Amino acid sequence: MGRKFWLPVATLWRRELIRFWREKARILGFVGSPLVFWLVIGSGFGNLAFFFPGALTLTVMFSAVFSTMSLIEDRREGFLLSMLVSPAPRSAMVLGKVLGSSTLAWLQGLILLLFLPLAGLRPGLAGLLEAIAALYLISFTLTALGFLIAWRMESSQGFHAIINLVLVPLWMVSGALFSMSTAHGWMRWLMKINPLTYSLSALRQLLTRQVDPASPGVGESLLVTAICGGALWAAATFAARQKTGRSFA
Amino acid sequence: MIISVENLSHRYKGRAALSGLSFQVAEGTVYGILGPNGGGKSTLFRILATMMAPAEGRAAIAGFDVERQPDQVRARIGVVFQSQSLDKKLRVEENLASQGHLYGLSGSVLKGRIDDALRRLGLTDRRRDLVETLSGGLRRRVEIAKALLHRPSVLLMDEPSTGLDPGARRELTEYVQELRNEQGVTVLLTTHLLDEAEHCDRLLLVHQGKRVAEGAPAELKARVGGDVVVLEVADPQAVRQRLVDRFGVAPQVRDGTLRVEIGNGHRFVTEVVEALPGAVQSIALHKPTLEDVFLDETGVGID
Questions:
Q1: What tens digit of pLDDT does each residue of A188-215 get?
Q2: Which of A85, B46, B151, B191 lies at a CB distance of 3.0 to 4.6 Å from B52, suitable for a disulfide?
Q3: What is the pTM of this model?
Q4: Which are the contacts of A101, defined by CB distance < 8 A and separation ≥ 6?
Q5: Contacting residues for B109 by C-beta, under 8 A, at least 6 apart
Q6: B50 interaction partners in chain A (CB closer than 8 Å)
């Protein structure tokens, strides 16, 4: 892996950050709705602390998934076109895009973390740093998922459908709205096989400094998230390397 | 031959986009692919640019197969797309730097290349501008600067003058000529515009994915021979018959006009006007154009 790999990775990553900085409205857009959700639901149930990890996950999910949506347009009319006809390896393109978009998602998560005191959560410095690291891992995994979905999509309408039909429901049954200990029967199983449950469980336990015996432990949760992230990234790289007989434009 | 295409065929969902197309391009040529939109030009462009694998046949650039050796081909081609491939939110120089990174260029080498490209295309004072603030003509110049950054030996351009005003078009043509003359770059461009095609060294006329004719513009026009006379008349079929009987010519009827190819067109014009008083609404004489070549071979026009 020499400079022919890392230069494209770095340039794509940097490009995402520059674009993001120049479109600051987007920052508010992705942080805004989870923030409102959290304040409304959390205040309504009188439990801002419980709903905080869910809002954090939602922020990262929206940001990760929407910033990979730009791939659909980008390869028809945009910078990606040049990338496709350059000798830069496709694996570098995938990694650069995933690193760039996941960094943005993570930064937006960090913005939401500023509201931690309002949630009444005091994880301490160690807990906070662990949560911040876990948040990046979650961002990476969700961005890799977004890449994989966007790569095969012809239109952004299809992408919206997947978000509404798959991702939002996954988030709902991840423990964001009710804890695993209060779930019964099939719902419990659904939560157990939902990878997002593990992301949420790790964040909640790191931020509250409490062990929830009904949920998977922090170590197990991070491992599951990392395995999913690695698998999705590999799948995205594989998909991007496929030769195609169909046109992109 | 720096570009060699043999028997290329491609279909989209059963519809043939290219059928058995073959041609060769010599080094240092400005080569035009001329034809109506939807005639297979874009498919050919995508195959040559390594974006798509052909269903049948082969294409090679600088001796490398576009399907099996895409990386070698990619290192040697510069590509200017019809749609924009710039990042609008980035500055001109940032776009160029990103492009350089994709080709493994960095540091002082990259900086030198960027300065050089900006100067050549007259963009030096625009280097810090965001691409979204530039006009269409300037953006196209940035696209070209970007495509040439890694010094490719072949430049592929898809409908390069689309959306440009006449001034910017002229500039583009001049720059392409300069590129060939001074740096020996081979340029392959697709177009449906006759004036753009006129400036190419050689042309391939394509229609429905097939080769119609090939040659230098002057050579192709010489094949039509003589002059072209176009008559606008009220009743084309009746007038056509009278022209056949009287002058022994073979007029084509198209869109309510009659088109006659004939030597000594000026004499024919006077004779027709005298022979058919009142029947002719207008009559025009011109030297054969590439449109006439295309019409002769396919029976349809380019536009």
A1: 999 999 999 999 999 999 999 888 888 8
A2: B46
A3: 0.87
A4: A16, A63, A64, A67, A68, A143, A146, A147
A5: none
A6: 85
What is the rounded CA–CA span in Å between residue B110 and residue B15?
Answer: 44
> Along chain B (303 residues), what's the average pLDDT of each consecutive run of 10 residues?
94 86 96 91 93 92 94 95 90 96 95 94 94 92 94 95 86 91 94 92 94 93 88 87 87 86 87 84 90 85 77
Return the domain boundaries, chain B.
3-217, 226-287
Q: What are phi and psi of A178, to 5 degrees?
A: -150, 150
Residue B179: φ, ψ to 5°: -60, -40
The string of DSSP letters for A109-131 reads HHHHHTTHHHHT---HHHHHHHH
Q: Identify the bridge partners of residue B172 per DSSP, sorted by sequence position.
A: none
Token pair 């199983």 is at which residue? A189
> For residue A87, is it within any domain?
yes
Residue type at B207 in one-letter notation:
H
Instruction: For the beta carbon of residue B75, count every other beta carbon within 10 angstroms.
Output: 16
Number of domains in chain A: 1
Contact at CB, B85 and A248, closer than 8 angstroms: no
Three-point CA angle A68, A6, A4, nearest 5°:
115
B195, two tokens: 């004036």
Structure tokens that stand for A29 in this block:
């857009």
Q: Are A224 and A230 in contact (CB under 8 A)?
A: no
Residue A86 pLDDT? 94
Cα distance between residue B303 and residue B300, in whole Å: 9
**What average pLDDT does the structure give for chain A?**
90
| Answer CATH for B226-287 from 3.90.850.10, 3.30.70.260, 2.60.40.10, 3.40.50.300 | 3.30.70.260
pLDDT of residue B116: 92
Q: Which two tokens stand for residue A204?
A: 């909640």
Which pLDDT score, from 0 to 100, does residue A210 have? 85
Evaluate whether residue A229 is within a structural domain.
yes
Identify from B13, B50, B101, B144 which residue to disrupt to test chain A contact, counting A C-beta atoms within 10 A and taking the largest count.
Answer: B101
For residue A149, give its domain range: 3-241
- How would residue A247 be classed by pLDDT, with cut points 50, 70 and 90? very low
Q: Using the beta-carbon criterion (under 8 Å), do A87 and B89 form an inter-chain contact?
A: no
- Token readout for B273 is 């006007």
Q: Quote ipTM for the complex.
A: 0.86
Structure tokens at A224: 């599951």
Q: Is residue A246 part of a domain?
A: no
**Residue A247 in domain:** no
Which amino acid, residue A186?
W
Report pLDDT for A1: 65
**What is the C-alpha to C-alpha distance for residues B101 and A2, in angstroms, rounded to an integer?**
12
The widest CA-to-CA distance across chain B, in whole angstroms, is 76
CATH number of the structural domain B3-217: 3.40.50.300
Which residues of chain A are at the B interface, by a Cβ-Cβ cutoff of 8 Å?
Answer: 3-4, 7-8, 10-12, 15, 18-19, 22-23, 76-79, 81-88, 243-249
Q: Name the phi and psi angles at B256, rounded to 5.
A: 75, 10
- Using a CB-CB distance cutoff of 8 angstroms, which residues of chain A are in contact with residue B146? 82
